[in-house]
Design goal:
single chain, mainly alpha, two-stranded antiparallel ribbon, two-stranded antiparallel sheet, 4 strands, about 60% helix, globular, disordered C terminus
Length: about 280
Amino acid sequence: MCSELFQLGPLTIRAFGLSLAIGFAAALWVGSYLATRIAGHHPDSTPNLAIWMIVAGIIGARIAYVAEHWNSEFADAARHGDFLPLIRVDQGGLMFYGGMAGAIVALALYARLKKTSFFSLADLVTTVLPLGHAFGRIGCFLHGCCYGRISQAACAVSFPKYSPAWYDHAENGLIPPTALHSLPVLPTQLFEATGNFLIFALLFYCYRRWSNRPGLIAGLYCLAYALLRFGVEALRGDPRMPVGPLSISQAASLALVVVGLALFAHSLSRPTTTATPKTDA
């Protein structure tokens, strides 16, 4: 783990923030290629849409994370008038499904404003989304959040003192306060990153072949990611909000399966398009 990479004057460059930036850049680059070469969109439309979705996605992801971890991470500081931690996304703390909700709202507003197909844009966005998400999960690993269960598996890793896993284990009496590392835990961040890279490869192939069926790629993404996230959640060891016997993200994954099936049904019930509607800048 290497949460703080280097200093630029008073600015601390953190691994999580840098990973997010790389993920956004990679997704934007591939998305621009697909939009102009495959879907026939205006070259300037993808960066404009990306700005809408990035801003809305970060806001949604942060709101969801703060709501889920309010009592454990933010309530005490807020009671003392310190609200800065609420917006320190560079230190980690984004909930993916909250970001997805914010991005969907931005996507719907953008499609309505530009008078273009929401489902065609959703196909484009969901094709590159797992690429950016994979880099984000690498950032989680470097920061130390979203860690897995205690394990003696060969792939298990120990995070250093003052990491989220170390604090968790020390507060629960699993290690002494003088311990230099946490107990070995499963690197669930890397499991999910690997899964997202594979989903991206699958969707990239499918988009080039079936982008003329609006909603199909988005439906495939929903099903693939829901299965990945549901499985990874079962291996997580960090505190998360429960929803009955499930975590909140597992419950959201089940809902995403329903959305994916609905998108499949919508796509297969409509005739194929000869060309994706172009958008203006």
